[in-house]
């Protein structure tokens, strides 16, 4: 999935570990909503609240990865010579945020 | 988790089944990102793209549940006599959407 | 602009007054950003912060109008007989929120 | 409003001109909604649709300013020596987007 021209731009190990742990917890949360949806008396708004909580947890992971990317790969892109590509792919992500 | 005063307002079975299947697929997607984060050369923007895809999938599930809730429980709330509560909890969900 | 089949569903006068006043203030805020953009030393992030403040002010107006619409026109839609249309147009608004 | 340490980081003239023109048009749009709200038969959903259109127009202005900021001030922040501050203020903007 990684773009070959960017293969040297790996996510910082500490951020990667933290993101993996948080996402493992998000996976458990989603698993819980799947089970919740097996009950035939589940209330719509309870499902919506759980989806919103998952959304918030994903947003926190995304913020940490974005912050690390800005620090380690974006603020030095002109020096590295790939600023156009870096900005283009970043805008693609941020546009629909 | 269901509010006792709303225990009769269960999510429509067809929407519930579809939501459960979609969320099982979201869980698999999150699982895939967890594995992706085990690779030490994972690129930040690839992670952000995957998180965004999960976010879009969750939003579709939420839209289907919301639409069903509006149809089956909100448009008849005055007749049922719980309009204030129904609107209050709905605004709480929609506020941060 | 109003849909003829909904012409009886007018926005509540008190909410309408409050929305008009808040939007007059938003217009002033936008006017201020236009003037800010006449300065050749304006800093990008200061513009982004102002745009975000306007966005927040618009969201508050939207929340008040939405809450009023839910209370006065959505929670009685089945009794009135236009639930399908009411839900359809509401989902259209909420989808991209 | 501009941060003194950033006073050299001015918004690109072409983007500034375009943003000013678009925002002048947004101001006219908001003015139109204010007038719309003077009518006592205005329909809630028509107001919500107009607010959403304004929101979309503001987002386009914000995207153009953000893209310019990334290109001209963020991708060279390490070389300039203010990367921490640049990333911090950017995350503050993007967090609630």
TrEMBL record, chains A, B, C, D:
A Gene Ontology molecular function term of the record: metal ion binding
Alphabetized CDD domains for the sequence: TthCsoR-like_DUF156
Protein name as annotated: Copper-sensing transcriptional repressor CsoR
Organism: Spiribacter salinus M19-40
Family of the protein in this entry: Belongs to the FrmR/RcnR family.
The protein's assembly and partners: Homodimer.
Lineage of the species this protein comes from: Bacteria, Pseudomonadati, Pseudomonadota, Gammaproteobacteria, Chromatiales
Pfam families xref list: Trns_repr_metal
Alphabetical UniProt keywords: Cytoplasm, Metal-binding
Locations listed in the record: Cytoplasm
Entry's Gene Ontology cellular component terms: cytoplasm
GO biological process: negative regulation of DNA-templated transcription
């Amino acid at each position: 999935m990684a773009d070959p021209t960017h293969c040297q731009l790996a996510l910082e190990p500490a951020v990667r570990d933290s993101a993996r742990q948080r996402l493992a917890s998000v996976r458990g949360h989603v698993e819980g909503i799947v089970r919740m949806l097996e009950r035939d008396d589940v209330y719509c708004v309870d499902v919506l609240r759980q989806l919103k909580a998952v959304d918030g947890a994903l947003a926190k992971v995304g913020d940490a990865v974005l912050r690390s990317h800005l620090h380690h790969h974006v603020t030095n892109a002109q020096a590295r010579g790939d600023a156009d590509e870096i900005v283009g792919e970043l805008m693609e992500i941020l546009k629909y945020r």
